[in-house]
Amino acid sequence: MAKDDGHSMSQTSVLPKHHQVYLVLRQQIADGVWTADEPMPAEVQLADIFGVSRITIRKAMERSTSKAACNAVGAGEHLQG
C-alpha cells in the first residue's frame, strides 16, 4: 500500500508512464515519505499501487538508481543514506 495518495497517474500526460512513476517516487523521497532505513515495496507491490506493469516500475527504478536516489538491496529498494 502506498504511504500517501501522491501516486496518481495522469491518463492524459504525454510523459511515458515510467517517467511519471519516477517523478512521483522522486517527490515522495524529497517529501520524506521513503527513508533510508526502510525498504520500498517490491516491484509487484509498486505495480499494483501505480496501476502499471512491473516493467514500467523497473524502468522507473532504474532511472532512480541511475540518479543515485536508491540502490537495489535484496528484494526491495533502499534509499541512499
Summary tags:
mainly alpha; 81 residues; globular; 2 strands; 3 helices; disordered N terminus; 10% strand
In short:
The chain has 3 helices and 2 strands; from the N terminus they run H-H-H-E-E. It is mainly alpha-helical and about 80 residues long.
How would you describe the overall organization of this protein?
With 81 residues, this protein is mostly helical. Helix content is 43%, strand content 10%. It contains 3 helices and 2 strands. The protein has helices at residues 17-30, 43-50, 54-66, and strands spanning 70-73, 76-79. A two-stranded antiparallel sheet has the order 1-2. Strand 1 and strand 2 form a beta hairpin. Helix 1 (17-30) crosses helix 3 (54-66) and helix 2 packs across helix 3. The longest helix has 14 residues, at 17-30. It is globular. Residues 1-5 and 71-75 have low confidence and may be disordered.
